[in-house]
Design goal:
Enzyme class: oxidoreductase
CATH topology of the largest domain: Rossmann fold
Number of helices: 14
Family: Belongs to the AlaDH/PNT family.
Strand content: 15-25%
CATH superfamily of the largest domain: NAD(P)-binding Rossmann-like Domain
Catalytic activity: L-alanine + NAD(+) + H2O = pyruvate + NH4(+) + NADH + H(+)
EC number: 1.4.1.1
Structural class: alpha/beta
Strand order of the largest sheet: 3-2-1-4-5-6-14-15
Shape: globular
InterPro entries: Ala_DH, Ala_DH/PNT_CS2, AlaDH/PNT_N, AlaDH/PNT_NAD(H)-bd, NAD(P)-bd_dom_sf
CATH architecture of the largest domain: 3-Layer(aba) Sandwich
Helix content: 25-40%
Number of domains: 2
Distance between the termini: 22 Å
CATH class of the largest domain: Alpha Beta
Number of strands: 15
Length: 371
Protein backbone atom coordinates (compact mmCIF):
# COMPACT_ATOMS: atom_id res chain seq x y z
CA UNK A 1 0.00 0.00 0.00
CA UNK A 2 1.09 3.60 -0.57
CA UNK A 3 1.20 5.51 2.73
CA UNK A 4 1.19 9.31 2.89
CA UNK A 5 2.11 11.45 5.89
CA UNK A 6 1.31 15.15 5.44
CA UNK A 7 2.67 17.89 7.67
CA UNK A 8 0.16 18.94 10.33
CA UNK A 9 -1.10 22.45 9.62
CA UNK A 10 -3.43 23.05 12.56
CA UNK A 11 -2.32 26.02 14.67
CA UNK A 12 0.85 25.17 16.64
CA UNK A 13 0.51 21.44 15.93
CA UNK A 14 4.04 20.07 15.89
CA UNK A 15 3.32 16.35 16.18
CA UNK A 16 3.78 13.98 13.26
CA UNK A 17 1.87 10.75 12.58
CA UNK A 18 4.87 8.55 11.78
CA UNK A 19 8.44 8.37 13.08
CA UNK A 20 11.42 7.11 11.08
CA UNK A 21 11.11 3.86 13.04
CA UNK A 22 7.53 3.58 11.80
CA UNK A 23 8.67 4.13 8.22
CA UNK A 24 11.12 1.26 8.62
CA UNK A 25 8.31 -1.02 9.82
CA UNK A 26 6.14 -0.17 6.82
CA UNK A 27 9.06 -0.78 4.46
CA UNK A 28 9.75 -4.12 6.15
CA UNK A 29 6.17 -5.10 5.34
CA UNK A 30 6.57 -4.15 1.67
CA UNK A 31 4.80 -0.77 1.65
CA UNK A 32 5.80 2.58 0.15
CA UNK A 33 5.89 5.66 2.37
CA UNK A 34 5.79 9.30 1.27
CA UNK A 35 6.45 12.05 3.83
CA UNK A 36 5.84 15.75 3.25
CA UNK A 37 9.02 17.80 3.58
CA UNK A 38 9.69 18.99 7.16
CA UNK A 39 6.65 17.06 8.51
CA UNK A 40 8.67 15.69 11.42
CA UNK A 41 10.88 18.68 12.23
CA UNK A 42 8.60 19.94 15.01
CA UNK A 43 8.95 16.58 16.76
CA UNK A 44 12.70 16.38 16.25
CA UNK A 45 12.81 14.14 13.14
CA UNK A 46 14.64 15.40 10.06
CA UNK A 47 13.84 14.65 6.43
CA UNK A 48 17.21 12.90 6.24
CA UNK A 49 16.18 10.54 9.05
CA UNK A 50 13.01 9.60 7.14
CA UNK A 51 14.93 9.06 3.91
CA UNK A 52 17.45 6.89 5.72
CA UNK A 53 14.53 4.79 7.04
CA UNK A 54 13.25 4.32 3.47
CA UNK A 55 10.68 7.09 2.92
CA UNK A 56 10.45 9.38 -0.09
CA UNK A 57 10.15 13.10 0.71
CA UNK A 58 7.57 15.08 -1.26
CA UNK A 59 7.64 18.90 -1.34
CA UNK A 60 3.93 19.69 -0.89
CA UNK A 61 0.85 18.51 0.97
CA UNK A 62 -0.97 18.28 -2.37
CA UNK A 63 1.59 15.77 -3.65
CA UNK A 64 1.17 13.58 -0.56
CA UNK A 65 -2.63 13.45 -0.78
CA UNK A 66 -2.50 12.85 -4.53
CA UNK A 67 -0.27 9.76 -4.37
CA UNK A 68 -1.38 8.08 -1.12
CA UNK A 69 -3.91 5.29 -0.68
CA UNK A 70 -3.80 5.73 3.10
CA UNK A 71 -3.21 9.05 4.80
CA UNK A 72 -1.89 8.81 8.35
CA UNK A 73 -2.27 12.01 10.38
CA UNK A 74 -2.50 13.27 13.94
CA UNK A 75 -5.30 15.84 13.85
CA UNK A 76 -8.44 16.03 11.74
CA UNK A 77 -8.17 17.61 8.28
CA UNK A 78 -8.89 21.34 8.26
CA UNK A 79 -10.82 23.23 5.58
CA UNK A 80 -7.86 23.77 3.25
CA UNK A 81 -7.30 19.99 3.13
CA UNK A 82 -10.86 18.94 2.33
CA UNK A 83 -10.49 19.35 -1.43
CA UNK A 84 -7.32 17.23 -1.43
CA UNK A 85 -9.07 14.13 -0.09
CA UNK A 86 -10.06 11.58 -2.72
CA UNK A 87 -13.00 9.18 -2.87
CA UNK A 88 -12.14 5.82 -1.26
CA UNK A 89 -8.97 7.26 0.29
CA UNK A 90 -8.38 5.91 3.79
CA UNK A 91 -7.69 8.51 6.49
CA UNK A 92 -6.38 7.25 9.82
CA UNK A 93 -6.27 10.07 12.37
CA UNK A 94 -8.11 11.78 15.22
CA UNK A 95 -11.40 13.14 13.84
CA UNK A 96 -13.70 14.04 16.77
CA UNK A 97 -16.64 14.33 14.34
CA UNK A 98 -19.16 14.92 17.14
CA UNK A 99 -17.63 18.34 17.78
CA UNK A 100 -17.58 19.54 14.15
CA UNK A 101 -20.58 19.42 11.85
CA UNK A 102 -18.57 21.10 9.08
CA UNK A 103 -15.93 18.35 9.14
CA UNK A 104 -18.60 15.65 9.19
CA UNK A 105 -20.33 17.01 6.10
CA UNK A 106 -16.99 17.55 4.33
CA UNK A 107 -15.92 13.94 4.81
CA UNK A 108 -19.34 12.66 3.74
CA UNK A 109 -19.05 14.75 0.60
CA UNK A 110 -15.51 13.55 -0.18
CA UNK A 111 -16.67 9.89 0.24
CA UNK A 112 -13.48 9.04 2.10
CA UNK A 113 -12.90 6.15 4.52
CA UNK A 114 -12.53 7.84 7.91
CA UNK A 115 -11.09 5.62 10.64
CA UNK A 116 -10.86 7.61 13.88
CA UNK A 117 -8.17 6.98 16.46
CA UNK A 118 -10.51 8.04 19.25
CA UNK A 119 -13.14 5.33 18.65
CA UNK A 120 -10.85 2.33 18.15
CA UNK A 121 -12.02 0.30 21.12
CA UNK A 122 -10.91 -2.88 22.88
CA UNK A 123 -13.27 -5.51 24.28
CA UNK A 124 -12.85 -4.04 27.76
CA UNK A 125 -14.14 -0.67 26.46
CA UNK A 126 -10.69 0.93 26.70
CA UNK A 127 -9.57 3.26 23.89
CA UNK A 128 -5.97 2.30 23.07
CA UNK A 129 -5.27 5.16 20.64
CA UNK A 130 -6.75 7.80 22.94
CA UNK A 131 -4.90 6.60 26.05
CA UNK A 132 -1.41 7.96 25.23
CA UNK A 133 -2.68 11.44 24.38
CA UNK A 134 -5.06 11.36 27.35
CA UNK A 135 -2.06 10.63 29.57
CA UNK A 136 -0.20 13.60 28.11
CA UNK A 137 -3.23 15.92 28.23
CA UNK A 138 -4.10 14.96 31.82
CA UNK A 139 -0.61 15.77 33.02
CA UNK A 140 -0.42 18.94 30.94
CA UNK A 141 -3.77 20.15 32.30
CA UNK A 142 -2.21 20.60 35.73
CA UNK A 143 0.97 22.11 34.31
CA UNK A 144 -1.03 24.68 32.34
CA UNK A 145 -3.58 25.21 35.11
CA UNK A 146 -0.82 25.96 37.61
CA UNK A 147 0.66 28.52 35.23
CA UNK A 148 -2.64 30.33 34.65
CA UNK A 149 -3.33 30.47 38.38
CA UNK A 150 -0.50 33.00 38.50
CA UNK A 151 -1.71 36.60 38.87
CA UNK A 152 0.02 37.94 35.73
CA UNK A 153 -1.80 35.22 33.75
CA UNK A 154 -5.21 36.25 35.12
CA UNK A 155 -5.50 33.70 37.90
CA UNK A 156 -5.98 34.01 41.66
CA UNK A 157 -2.26 34.22 42.37
CA UNK A 158 -2.06 30.84 44.08
CA UNK A 159 0.86 28.43 44.18
CA UNK A 160 -0.59 24.98 43.59
CA UNK A 161 1.29 23.26 46.41
CA UNK A 162 1.31 26.16 48.88
CA UNK A 163 4.22 26.55 51.33
CA UNK A 164 4.75 26.08 55.07
CA UNK A 165 2.00 27.91 56.91
CA UNK A 166 -0.05 28.52 53.72
CA UNK A 167 -2.68 26.10 52.47
CA UNK A 168 -2.24 24.60 48.99
CA UNK A 169 -4.70 25.15 46.14
CA UNK A 170 -7.90 23.16 45.79
CA UNK A 171 -8.07 21.22 42.52
CA UNK A 172 -11.32 19.69 41.25
CA UNK A 173 -11.09 16.99 38.58
CA UNK A 174 -14.32 16.08 36.78
CA UNK A 175 -13.98 12.54 35.44
CA UNK A 176 -11.97 9.60 36.73
CA UNK A 177 -10.78 8.15 33.43
CA UNK A 178 -7.26 8.33 32.00
CA UNK A 179 -7.17 12.14 31.77
CA UNK A 180 -8.68 12.65 35.21
CA UNK A 181 -6.46 10.07 36.85
CA UNK A 182 -3.29 11.56 35.38
CA UNK A 183 -4.40 15.09 36.29
CA UNK A 184 -5.17 14.07 39.87
CA UNK A 185 -1.79 12.31 40.23
CA UNK A 186 0.07 15.37 38.93
CA UNK A 187 -1.86 17.81 41.13
CA UNK A 188 -1.40 15.59 44.18
CA UNK A 189 2.31 15.27 43.43
CA UNK A 190 2.62 19.05 43.47
CA UNK A 191 0.98 19.11 46.89
CA UNK A 192 -2.50 20.39 46.03
CA UNK A 193 -5.70 19.30 47.76
CA UNK A 194 -7.45 17.26 45.05
CA UNK A 195 -11.05 16.14 44.62
CA UNK A 196 -11.81 13.75 41.76
CA UNK A 197 -15.42 13.08 40.75
CA UNK A 198 -16.92 10.28 38.65
CA UNK A 199 -20.31 8.63 38.15
CA UNK A 200 -18.87 5.11 38.53
CA UNK A 201 -18.66 3.83 42.10
CA UNK A 202 -16.30 0.96 41.13
CA UNK A 203 -13.98 3.51 39.50
CA UNK A 204 -14.07 5.70 42.61
CA UNK A 205 -13.24 2.68 44.76
CA UNK A 206 -10.24 1.96 42.55
CA UNK A 207 -9.08 5.59 42.69
CA UNK A 208 -9.52 5.64 46.46
CA UNK A 209 -7.14 2.68 46.67
CA UNK A 210 -4.40 3.98 44.39
CA UNK A 211 -4.38 7.73 45.00
CA UNK A 212 -2.31 9.43 47.71
CA UNK A 213 -3.87 10.80 50.89
CA UNK A 214 -4.38 14.31 49.50
CA UNK A 215 -6.88 13.05 46.89
CA UNK A 216 -10.56 12.69 47.84
CA UNK A 217 -13.08 10.82 45.71
CA UNK A 218 -16.66 12.11 45.37
CA UNK A 219 -19.67 10.82 43.41
CA UNK A 220 -20.41 13.09 40.47
CA UNK A 221 -23.88 14.63 40.35
CA UNK A 222 -25.13 18.17 39.83
CA UNK A 223 -25.48 18.96 43.53
CA UNK A 224 -21.97 17.77 44.39
CA UNK A 225 -20.46 19.59 41.41
CA UNK A 226 -22.18 22.84 42.38
CA UNK A 227 -20.83 22.55 45.92
CA UNK A 228 -17.30 21.60 44.87
CA UNK A 229 -16.80 24.47 42.42
CA UNK A 230 -17.29 27.01 45.23
CA UNK A 231 -14.04 25.87 46.86
CA UNK A 232 -11.97 25.05 43.77
CA UNK A 233 -9.08 27.17 42.52
CA UNK A 234 -8.42 24.97 39.47
CA UNK A 235 -11.05 22.84 37.74
CA UNK A 236 -10.14 20.17 35.16
CA UNK A 237 -12.85 18.96 32.76
CA UNK A 238 -11.95 15.36 31.91
CA UNK A 239 -15.22 13.77 30.80
CA UNK A 240 -15.42 11.65 27.64
CA UNK A 241 -18.19 9.72 25.93
CA UNK A 242 -16.44 7.85 23.08
CA UNK A 243 -17.28 9.35 19.69
CA UNK A 244 -20.06 11.56 21.09
CA UNK A 245 -20.37 15.06 22.49
CA UNK A 246 -19.26 15.50 26.07
CA UNK A 247 -22.04 16.46 28.54
CA UNK A 248 -21.98 19.93 30.10
CA UNK A 249 -21.20 19.34 33.78
CA UNK A 250 -20.50 23.03 34.39
CA UNK A 251 -23.04 25.45 32.94
CA UNK A 252 -22.83 29.21 32.42
CA UNK A 253 -24.85 29.99 35.54
CA UNK A 254 -22.33 28.10 37.71
CA UNK A 255 -19.55 30.61 36.99
CA UNK A 256 -21.07 33.06 39.47
CA UNK A 257 -20.47 30.56 42.27
CA UNK A 258 -16.73 30.35 41.56
CA UNK A 259 -14.05 32.55 43.09
CA UNK A 260 -12.74 35.28 40.74
CA UNK A 261 -9.53 34.08 39.11
CA UNK A 262 -10.51 30.41 39.20
CA UNK A 263 -8.98 28.55 36.24
CA UNK A 264 -10.96 26.09 34.10
CA UNK A 265 -9.09 23.62 31.86
CA UNK A 266 -11.47 21.72 29.58
CA UNK A 267 -9.57 18.75 28.18
CA UNK A 268 -12.79 17.52 26.53
CA UNK A 269 -13.08 20.62 24.32
CA UNK A 270 -12.26 18.64 21.15
CA UNK A 271 -15.40 16.58 21.85
CA UNK A 272 -17.58 19.66 22.42
CA UNK A 273 -16.37 20.35 25.96
CA UNK A 274 -17.85 19.49 29.37
CA UNK A 275 -17.88 23.15 30.43
CA UNK A 276 -20.61 25.09 28.64
CA UNK A 277 -18.64 28.33 28.32
CA UNK A 278 -15.57 26.65 26.77
CA UNK A 279 -14.87 27.02 23.06
CA UNK A 280 -11.70 25.73 21.36
CA UNK A 281 -8.59 27.90 21.63
CA UNK A 282 -5.04 27.51 20.34
CA UNK A 283 -1.57 27.46 21.87
CA UNK A 284 -1.13 30.91 20.31
CA UNK A 285 -4.13 32.34 22.20
CA UNK A 286 -4.91 29.69 24.83
CA UNK A 287 -7.21 31.49 27.27
CA UNK A 288 -10.16 33.83 27.56
CA UNK A 289 -12.04 35.23 30.56
CA UNK A 290 -15.78 35.09 31.23
CA UNK A 291 -17.21 36.48 34.48
CA UNK A 292 -13.68 36.75 35.94
CA UNK A 293 -13.09 33.03 35.34
CA UNK A 294 -10.04 32.03 33.24
CA UNK A 295 -10.85 29.44 30.56
CA UNK A 296 -8.04 27.35 29.03
CA UNK A 297 -9.51 25.36 26.13
CA UNK A 298 -6.70 24.36 23.77
CA UNK A 299 -8.00 21.56 21.55
CA UNK A 300 -4.60 19.99 20.85
CA UNK A 301 -2.84 20.29 24.19
CA UNK A 302 -0.30 17.47 23.51
CA UNK A 303 0.87 19.41 20.45
CA UNK A 304 2.87 21.63 22.82
CA UNK A 305 5.10 18.70 23.80
CA UNK A 306 5.48 17.09 20.36
CA UNK A 307 8.52 14.93 20.99
CA UNK A 308 6.89 13.10 23.90
CA UNK A 309 3.47 13.08 22.24
CA UNK A 310 4.63 11.79 18.86
CA UNK A 311 6.53 8.88 20.38
CA UNK A 312 3.65 8.01 22.73
CA UNK A 313 1.07 8.19 19.95
CA UNK A 314 3.00 6.27 17.30
CA UNK A 315 3.83 3.51 19.79
CA UNK A 316 0.06 2.92 19.94
CA UNK A 317 -1.06 3.61 16.35
CA UNK A 318 1.65 1.82 14.35
CA UNK A 319 0.48 -1.79 14.93
CA UNK A 320 -3.02 -0.85 13.73
CA UNK A 321 -1.67 1.11 10.75
CA UNK A 322 0.44 -1.89 9.72
CA UNK A 323 -2.67 -4.11 9.84
CA UNK A 324 -4.58 -1.66 7.64
CA UNK A 325 -1.75 -1.53 5.13
CA UNK A 326 -1.14 -5.29 5.07
CA UNK A 327 -4.77 -6.34 4.69
CA UNK A 328 -6.59 -3.29 3.32
CA UNK A 329 -9.14 -1.48 5.49
CA UNK A 330 -12.08 -3.80 4.71
CA UNK A 331 -10.36 -7.06 5.56
CA UNK A 332 -8.56 -5.54 8.55
CA UNK A 333 -11.82 -4.21 10.00
CA UNK A 334 -13.64 -7.49 9.40
CA UNK A 335 -10.94 -9.41 11.23
CA UNK A 336 -10.24 -6.89 13.99
CA UNK A 337 -13.23 -5.71 16.02
CA UNK A 338 -11.13 -2.92 17.55
CA UNK A 339 -10.41 -1.39 14.16
CA UNK A 340 -14.02 -1.89 13.04
CA UNK A 341 -15.19 0.37 15.86
CA UNK A 342 -12.82 3.04 14.55
CA UNK A 343 -14.81 3.42 11.33
CA UNK A 344 -16.88 6.62 11.49
CA UNK A 345 -17.55 7.57 7.86
CA UNK A 346 -17.40 5.23 4.87
CA UNK A 347 -18.08 6.30 1.27
CA UNK A 348 -20.51 9.04 2.18
CA UNK A 349 -22.25 7.16 5.01
CA UNK A 350 -22.01 7.64 8.77
CA UNK A 351 -21.35 4.27 10.40
CA UNK A 352 -20.77 5.44 13.98
CA UNK A 353 -23.94 6.07 15.98
CA UNK A 354 -22.51 8.81 18.19
CA UNK A 355 -21.72 10.93 15.13
CA UNK A 356 -25.14 10.48 13.52
CA UNK A 357 -26.84 11.37 16.80
CA UNK A 358 -24.67 14.44 17.33
CA UNK A 359 -25.82 16.02 14.04
CA UNK A 360 -29.13 14.17 13.52
CA UNK A 361 -27.86 12.62 10.28
CA UNK A 362 -28.75 9.20 8.82
CA UNK A 363 -26.95 6.24 10.37
CA UNK A 364 -25.78 3.23 8.36
CA UNK A 365 -24.97 0.05 10.26
CA UNK A 366 -21.37 -1.02 9.83
CA UNK A 367 -22.45 -4.45 8.53
CA UNK A 368 -23.84 -2.77 5.41
CA UNK A 369 -20.44 -1.42 4.36
CA UNK A 370 -18.50 -4.52 5.42
CA UNK A 371 -20.84 -7.03 3.79
Amino acid sequence: MIIGVPKEIKNNENRVALTPAGVAEFKKNGHTVYIQASAGVGSGFTDEAYEKAGATILPTIEAVYEIAEMIVKVKEPIASEYKLIKENQLLFTYFHFASSEELTHAMLERKAICLAYETVEKADRSLPLLVPMSEVAGRMAIQEGAKYLEKPMGGRGILLGGVAGVKPANVLVLGGGIVGTQAAKMAAGLGANVTIMDISLPRLRYLEDVMPANVDTVMSNEYNVREAIKLADLIIGAVLIPGAKAPHLITRDMLKDMKPGTVLVDVAVDQGGCIETCTPTTHENPTFVIDEIVHYCVANMPGAVPYTSTLALTNATLPYAIQLANKGWEKACKENEELKKGLNVVNGKIVYKGVSEAWKLPYCHISEVLA
